[in-house]
Amino acid sequence: MSSISDDELLGRLTSALAPESITPDARSLEQFRDALQRSAKNDDVIVSISSPTKRRASRLHRLRHPVGAAIGVIFLASTSVAAAAAVGTDTLPGPTRTVAYEIGLPVTSPALYQTQETLHQLNVAVDHHDPVAAREAGNQLRQNLQQLNPRDLTHVQGPARALLPRAGVPVPPSITIPPRPTPPTTPQRLPEQQVPAGTSPVTSPTPSPPNTQPSGSSPQRGSTPALHPSSTPSTAPTSRPASGRPGA
Amino acid sequence: MSDEQENEGTSRAVDLEHERLIARDPHAWEAFYERNYSAMVAYAQRRLPSIDDARDAVGDAMTRVVDGLQRMDESGASPEAWSYGVLRHVVLDYQRKMYRKRQVKTQREISSPEPFERLIASEEHDAVRAAFELLPERDREVLELRVVAGLSADEVANVLKMKPGAVRMAQARALERLRGLLESEGTP
Description:
The structure holds two protein chains of two kinds.
Chain A lengths: L5 H12 L8 H21 L4 H11 L4 H24 L4 H9 L7 H18 L3 H16 L3 H14 L9 H4 L72
Helix pairs in contact in A: 6-7, 6-8
Chain B lengths: L2 H20 L3 H20 L5 H17 L1 H7 L3 H19 L4 H10 L4 H4 L3 H12 L2 H11 L5 H8 L3 H22 L3
Helix pairs in contact in B: 2-3, 3-5, 5-10, 8-11, 9-11, 10-11
Family (chain B): Belongs to the sigma-70 factor family. ECF subfamily.
Pfam families (chain B): Sigma70_r2, Sigma70_r4_2
Keywords (chain B): DNA-binding, Sigma factor, Transcription, Transcription regulation
């Protein structure tokens, strides 16, 4: 026997262990077909098309730490909601605002936001009759205004034009010329009680910016009129512009 | 047709069949079941008390195979290797369940008449079978999966959770032991 090779020994073993030829009985086959049908249905439910999808689905069931995964999901969801709320209400902190603005989220630009902040400080200083703070804020606002693009400038130029002279700070040249109003296509009638006597009620007068100068005097560039409570214009902004932070 | 061409054709047919099996073709699975049934029952029968238990075990195993085809895809195992792997676990489950009844079953099997085919088997086959039964369980399993089931060394490695090299070594050792047993019995 020692002379026979492994192959020959395997051949003898194959003959000796050859299984009897038997076939599955009807019950066994039926059971198998049922399992096949069940498997096909399960595939329809679980699988969309590709096997990577199947693998992801099955791996979800085999997470080792489902509680940790759930906490992670809740954390991500709450963070996302908080971020969405911050963007929606435009209450982002400085660096986040810069990033959000750069990627195109609907937030106020950092330059405009800073300008609105300064404008608010100036408004408060004027209301509190604090000439030193008003001048500081006014100078800061003047610098901020020069850094704004034309679109952002339209949001703040009205209040700035009203408040800067009251702080004794000259209005920057970029906003001294009021925007040209488009001529009305149809004549607008003013309410009767607002029509001054002797004036033609055909067109509405060009809206003039809030002016602290006494009537009849021309505005002087670079003039620093004294801050006076009685000169507070009725149109001076007492609250933040619409694009500013709510509740401010 | 040369042997090389024949082998190439067989390999291509096997690949094609595997593709159909992986694609859940029910006809391919039925054909696969019927073709492997005898060998799988023989594998189970050598480890379970009766052929009925073996048939039941194979039926259960194949049901589990098609229920878990997704896992088979993920493992990368061939359908044959995966099926024998499942059958092996099912047989172990049966053995555990039958542990208390083992004495009764063994006595019944001894008293039951031998199948006609076994009675007329050749003396050499009897000797080889007798020597085979004396081998350790792991040797028998490796040889049976290689010889009866026709699995490759890689597939046997997949079933037994071994490395392919270890399977080849185990097979060589098992054949050496079998040869020694046959020599001691005086079989030529």
